[in-house]
Amino acid sequence: MNDFYYRKLDVYHLSKKMVADIYQITKTFPPSELYGLTNQIQRAAISVPSNIAEGLGRFAIKERLHFIEIAYGSLMEVMCQLEIAELLNYITNEITAQLEKDITNIAKMLSGLRRNLQEKNNFK
Fold it and tell me: Based on the number of CB atoms within 10 Å of its own CB, is 1 exposed (0-12), middle (13-18) or buried (19 or more)?
């Protein structure tokens, strides 16, 4: 197995865990949400580690930055959708609060990765 760079990053592994958590939580959503909120939040969650991997698979730093920014945007989308799920009483405040801690941690890591890439880009 190749040792791809993105696999060495904690942010990648934490975002994959978040995907698994989102899938577990959305199992409890009403069937009427299957093609609505359930699908939307799952797709947004999957987008986070996917864009980290794709971005860090690029050679140009500007492209890497672009994909890290997309991952960050998808992460904010997940948070918004969790808030909506709570508003609709699909999940409890406790579930939202726990996931928000994870999302905040991932967001900080993505911001750090972005800063690091920007610094590298400025040295070129």
Answer: exposed
